[in-house]
Amino acid sequence: MLDRLIEFFKPHVWPLVFAIVIVALVPLIAGYIVLLERKVMADMQARLGPMRVGPHGLLQPIADALKLLLKEDIIPDGADKWIFWLAPLLSVTAAMLAMSVIPFGPVFQIADLNVGILFLLGIGSMGIYGIVLGGWASNSHYSLLGALRSSAQLVSYETAAGMAIVSGLMFGGTLSTRALVQAQLDSHMWFFICAPIGFFLYLVASIAETNRAPFDLPEAESELVAGYMTEYSGFRWALYFLAEYTNMIVVASIATTLFLGGWLRPFPNAGWAGFFDYIPMLLMLLVAGYCVYRAPKQPVQIQKLVMYGVAGLCALLAIILALPVFGSAGSILAAMKPGVHGAFWFLAKVTLYLYVFLWLRFTVPRYRFDQLMSLGWHFLIPISIVNVLGVGIALYLHRSVEEGGKGWPLAASIILTILATLAVAAWLAKRNETKPALAEPEKF
Amino acid sequence: MADTILFYFFGGLAVLSAILVVTRRNAVHSAVFLVTALLATAGLFLQLRAEFLFIVQVILYVGGIMVLFIFVIMLVNLDVAMRQAQFNRAWYVWGLLAVAMGAQVYVVFHYARMQTSASFFNQAVAPVEQLEPNTQLVGQALFSTYMLPFEIASILLLVAMIGAVVMAKKRV
What is the C-alpha to C-alpha distance for residues B159 and B154, in angstroms, rounded to an integer? Predict the structure, then answer.
C-alpha cells in the first residue's frame, strides 16, 4: 500500500514543493509590493514614506501583517455569514490558483497545461465572485455598489484583455505558457515587438481588471468609503488585499510570459549580448554595497544590523547568480543557469511591469464611471478586435514566405497592419470625442 | 485508483450541489451552489482529458454567465421573493419529466454497459500521454469539417447580440 502511495506521489513531489514555496512567498512579496508602492508614492510626492519600522521602513510589511492578524474580526449584523466568510477565500483561492501555470523559469513551474493561457483567463474571471459575493453579503449599500461597479468593470474589460492576449498568441501558435516562451526564443524576438498594440491594450485592460487607479472605481474612497470591502476588517480584509496584489503579480506574469519573453534574458540568441549574464550578479553586488555604505548612518543599532543583513542577503543572491556563469561548461553549476537566471529575469520583468502600475496610479487621476465604460466599450474592444484582424492579415501575408513562395517580409506586414490599426484607433478616438457624452448626468 | 476517487469526488459534488441549488430558499445561495455544480462538471471534463471543454466551461459558464446571473439576482428584491410561498402548482408535470429523464439515464447506462464490458464502478481512462492536445483538434474540426454549421451558429449569435443591443437602446 505504502509503495503504491509513494509511486503515485512521485511525479507530484516537485510541483508540490513549488506550490508550497509560492503559497509561502506570495503573501510576503505582496506585503513588500505594498511597501514599494508607498515608497514610490512618497518619492513622487517628495516625501520619505514609511521610515520607522526597520531601516527605511523595510520591516513595515511585517508590522502591518501582524497588526491585521491581531485586529478584531467583525461580522456585521444582518450579513449573510456563510457568504461573508466564503467571499475573501474565493478571491484568494482564484488568485493563487492562477500562479500554478506561470512559468517562473524553464523548470520552476507547477503545471504546464495545454490550455495554460486560457486557464489564466478562466481563473481570473472566477476572482469576480469574491468581490461580488463579498459586497452582497456585507448588507451595506456602499459594498453592494462597489461590487456592482467592480463586476461591470471586470466583465467589460475581460473582452479587451482576451482579445489582446489572442493577438500575442497568434504569433506563438500555442496556448501552453512554457511553449509560448519557447516560441519567443525560436522566433528571435519577444512578441512585444510583433504585437505592440496588443501589449498596450493588455496593459490598460490589466490595470482595469485588477481594479487599480486610474480605474479603481470599485473602491473609490471619496464616493464609496472602500467599495466592496467596506465592512471587512482584520484578517478577511487582509485576504482581500492579498488577492488584489496576487492578481497584480498574475497579470504582470501573463504580460511577461506572453509579450516580454518570460524567463529569457534580453537578446537571448545573440552572441554579442553575453554580457547580460553578468548583469544580475553585478546588480545584486551593487545593492549589497549600497546597503553596507548606508548602514553606519542608521540611527539605531538594530537598524544597522538589519541593513547588514540585507547586504548579506544580496551578496548571497549575487553568489548564487554568479556560480552558473563562472561554472565550467557541462558541470552541474552551468546546468543550473537557465533556472536561476530565468527566475531572475522573469521577476525583473514582473517588477518593471508592476512599477508601471504604480507609476500610473500616482500620475493619472481617477476616471468617472461613464468614462470608464466608454473607454472600454467604444475604444478598447473595437481596437482589440481590429488588432486581432490586423495580426491575422500580417501573418497571412507573411505565410507564403515560410512555404517558400513570394510574400511579404514579416517586418513589413507587421508595420503595415500596425499603421492600419493605429489609423482605426485615431478615427475612433476622434469619433468618441465629437460625440456627446454617453449618459448625461441626471439632475438631482 | 486516483482516477476513480476523483471521479466520485467531482460527481458527488456536482449531484450534491445540484440538489442544493433547488432546495435553498435564498437565491444567491442557489446561484453559488450552481457555480459549484458547474465547476464540478468542469472537473469531470478535465478528468476525461478534455482540457479545452474544461476551460471553456469555466470561462463561459462560471466566469461569464453565472456572474451575470448573480448580478441580476442581487438587483432583485430578495426579501420579497423569499417570503413568498411556492406558487407553482404544476408539480406533476415536472414529476413526469423527472421520471422520463431518469429512465433516459438508465437506458444510456444500460447500453453503455452492454457495449464495453467494463465494470460499472471501475471505468478505464485513456492515459494522458497518448492523447493529442484537444484545443488544436477542436479548432481543426470547427474550421474544416464543420465550417458551415460553425458559421451558421456564429451568425445566429451575432444576430441575437445585435437584436439585444437594438432592443435595449434608448431612442435618442
Answer: 9
